[in-house]
Amino acid sequence: MGFFMLASFLVLMILGLPLFLSLLSAALVGILLLGDLSLLRVMSQQFFGGMDSFTLMAIPFFILAGILMNRSGLTDRLLDFCRLLVGSVRGGLGYVNVVGSIILAGVNGSAVADASALGSILIPAMIKDGFSPSYSAGLTAGSALIGPIIPPSIFMIIYATMTNTSIGGLFAAGILPGLVLGGAFMIMNYFYSMKYHVPVADFAEVRKRKKEILARSAVALLAPVIILGGIISGVVTPTESGALAVAYCLVTGVFYTRQLTRKVLWESLYETVRLTSSIFLIMGAATVIGWLLKWEQVPQRFAALLLQAGLVDRPWLLMVVLSGVIFPIGMFMEEVSTLTLLTPIFTPIAMKAGIDPFQFGVVMTLNVTIALITPPMGACNYVVAAVGKVKLTDVFMHIWPFIGVSLIVLLIIITFPFLTTLIPGMMNL
Question: What is the phi/psi pair of residue 200, to 5°?
C-alpha cells in the first residue's frame, strides 16, 4: 500500500496538482487499496483535526508580524543597526547579512520570508561591494536558515503541537544552535572575504549617523524582545506573543514610521491569509497520510527494524540515520508536509532511545530547514534568485558549500546535546 501511495503522490505532484490535493489523493488511493470505504469518514475528521489546534494560531500571527515588519520600514532600520554593528570590516556586508538574519529570526520564524526581506536589499549591495552574485545569493539563502531555528519558529510550533512538547522549551532549545549556525556562516564569510580580497566597505556615513541609527533601530529591536522575552519567560503563550508582536508592529507602522497605509495593511492581511491557508491545508492533508501509515503500523515496523539493527541503543548513530532519511525526503517534498509526516513516526523511536525531546525537535527542524536551500526544491534559492536578480542556475551551482556548512552544524548539534538542553535547563522549561 505504501508504495502505491508514494507513486501516486509523486505522479500527481509532477503533473502540477497542488501539494495538499496530491497528498489527499494519495490517501484516497491507500483507502481504496485497503478496501474499507468507511475510512473516508475518518479521513475528513483527520484532515480537520490536523488543523484544529489553538497552538497553531501562533503561525498566522508570526507570519503577519514579519510581513508588517518588512512593510512598515522596521526591517530597514534593523539592517542599518547591523551595518553599524559589524559593517566596517572586510566583507562587512556579509556579516550584516548574517546578523540581520539572526535578528529577523526573532520575529517571523520563516526562512523564506527572511530570504525575501534581506535579499532584495543586501544582494545588490553585496554585489556592488565586491562579492560575486552567486555568493551574495548563497549567503542570503544560507543565513535565512537561521529563521526557523532561533525562536519563534513555525516548524517548531508544528513539531511541538504534534508531540505535546513545551513550545517555550523548544524555542529556548533553538537559541544556541541558531547562534552556532550564524557563527558558522560568519566564519565562512571571513575566509571568502580574505581569499577573494573583498574590499573594506566605506561605512563612514553610517558611523556619522550612529546616534540617529541607534534611536531609529531601538523601536525595531523591541519586536523580537517582545516575542522572545514573553514566550521564554512564560508571561504569555506563543499565540499571545504573536498577537502582541502584530499589535506592536501595527502601532509603530501606522503612527511612528507611517508606512502602513490602508492599502499596505490589506495587502499584508491578504499575504498572511494566503500563506497560512497553504500551510494549514498541507498540514491537514499530511495528517491524513500519517494516520493511514499508523493504521498500517508503518512506524512500528520501522521501529522494529531499527531495534534489530541495534540503533536504539546508540542515540548518536540513530539521529544520524534518521537525519539521513529526513533530509533527502525534504529535498523533494514541501517542508511542512515532511515535518508533519515524519514527526509521528520518528519521535517515538527517538524517545525510546533516550534522546532529549528538545534536541530531537531541533534536529528535525534543522533537517527540514536545510532542505530549503537544497536543489531541486530549495524554495529559498528561488526567492534569492528572483529578488536579487541572480541566475537561478548560478545559485544552484554555488549553493553546495552553504549546504555543507549547515550539515556540519547539524552534526555538531547531534554530537553535543548540551547545545539544545542548556538554556531550557537553566530556565526550568
Answer: -75, 125
